[in-house]
Amino acid sequence: MTFDDQELLDRDPLIERVLISSADIQRRVAELGREISSDYGGDPPVLVSVLKGAIVFMADLIRRISVPHEIDFMSVSSYQGGTQSTGVVKILMDLKTNITDRDVLIVEDIIDTGATLTYLEEILQARKPRSLRLCTLLNKADAHTEDIAIDYLGFDIPNEFVIGYGLDYAEQYRNLPFIGIMKG
Ligand code: IMP
Ligand code: MG
After folding, report:
1. At the N or C end, where does the chain have fewer CB atoms within 10 A?
2. C-beta atoms surrounding 103 within 10 Å
3. What are the pocket residues of ligand 1 if the criterion is a CB atom closer than 6 Å to any ligand atom?
4. Is residue 112 flagged as an active site residue?
5. Whether the Cβ atoms of residue 57 and residue 30 lie closer than 8 Å to each other
6. 168 CA closest ligand 1 atom index
7. Is 159 helix (H, G, I), strand (E, B) or coil?
8. Which residues surround ligand 2, an ion (CB under 5 A)?
9. What is the pLDDT of residues 45-72, one digit of tens each?
C-alpha cells in the first residue's frame, strides 16, 4: 500500500480495506500492456472499452501499449446503481468505429456474472471482426453464470463488491487509485 492509499482509506469510514493496492495495479497493467504489445503487431487493433467503469483501466493500459492501436467506447448498462446484478443489459451508446475485419480487444473493468460481457460479445461478433479478444482487470470467477474466455486477466478476486479504479458504488469512488472493499 502506498501512503496515498492509506490516507484515502483513513479518510473514508465506508471503505473496509484495500484489496489491490495502486502499486500492484500499476505493475500488473504494465505487464498486460507488454503482453498485448507483443501479441498485436500487424494492423492496429481497436480497443473497445465499456463505459464507465473501464475508463481508468483503459487510460492506464494504453499508455503501456507500444504498438499502434485505436480506442473506442460503448456504453451498456446492467446495474441500476446498487450492488446486485439485475440481468437486464441495455445498450446506451454504440461504437463509432466499423469493426468488420478489424482485430478487436474488449477492455473491461470487471467480469462478475459475465452477463454483460456475453451480451457485448454477441453484438460485436455479429459485426464480423477479424478477431475478438477480452482483457479484463478483475474477474470474479466464483460469480460467473456464463462461460467466459479471458485472454488477458489482471486479477482474480473473491466474490465481494469492490470499488475504486473506475468501479463505483452509486457513482461514487471511481477516483480511488486502488481497488477497495466496502464495509458490508
Ligand atoms: P456482470 O454482467 O454481472 O458481469 O457485471 C458487469 C458490470 O457490473 C461491470 O462492468 C460493473 O459495472 C458492475 N460490477 C460488477 N461487480 C462489481 C463490483 O464489485 N463493484 C462495482 N461494479 C461491479
Ligand atoms: Mg457500475
Report:
1. C
2. 19
3. 53, 78-79, 85, 109-117, 161-163, 167
4. yes
5. no
6. 21
7. coil
8. 79, 168
9. 999 998 999 999 999 999 999 999 999 9
